[in-house]
Amino acid sequence: MNEYEIWSTYQLAMVSRAIFLLFVFFAGWFAARVTLNLVNSGNANMFTKLVTTVFGLLIVYFGLIQQAFTTWSTEATAYALSQVDEPSGRFDSFIAFFASDGEPSYSLIGDPFITLFWIILGLYIILPLWVNNSSD
């Protein structure tokens, strides 16, 4: 593959990642609204709490998957661009910033700050269901 083909494939992958991320954020917003409604109703039973908790955990999982694919795609693109036979030099800074040692490997836990973001989002969804915050 030449540089143009590699870069075009990468851009297409980032578009699909962005669409998936929008879905995950919408699902997170929806789960937070469900949690808020359950907490405000005051009569959430165990089944609805469990279903909402599982849904919140799935959102965190899908968010981590999305970020892992994004990181892997970016590092794989940098690696592929570094392996081009006759590089043009247009992607040198991209390669220098994102290239890893050797071929990149997929990992669900990547950047600790992004992982922390998804964990906190999950806690925002799940904790209000299980923590009694009434002032009785």
Give a quick account of the main beta sheet: strands, pairing sense, barrel closure.
none
The overall pLDDT, averaged over residues, is 88
Please report which band the strand proportion falls in: under 5%, 5-15%, 15-25%, 25-35%, 35-45% or over 45%: under 5%
Shape: elongated
What does the radius of gyration come to?
A: 20 Å
Describe this structure in words.
The chain is mostly helical. It has helices at residues 3-41, 46-82, 92-98, 112-130. The longest helix is centred in the first third of the chain and has 39 residues, at 3-41. The radius of gyration is 20 Å and the shape is elongated. The termini are far apart.
Spell out the blueprint of helices and strands.
Blueprint: H1 3-41, H2 46-82, H3 92-98, H4 112-130
Helix pairs in contact: 1-2, 1-4, 2-3, 2-4
Short précis:
The protein is mostly helical and 136 residues long.
Which structural traits does this protein have?
75% helix; mainly alpha; 136 residues
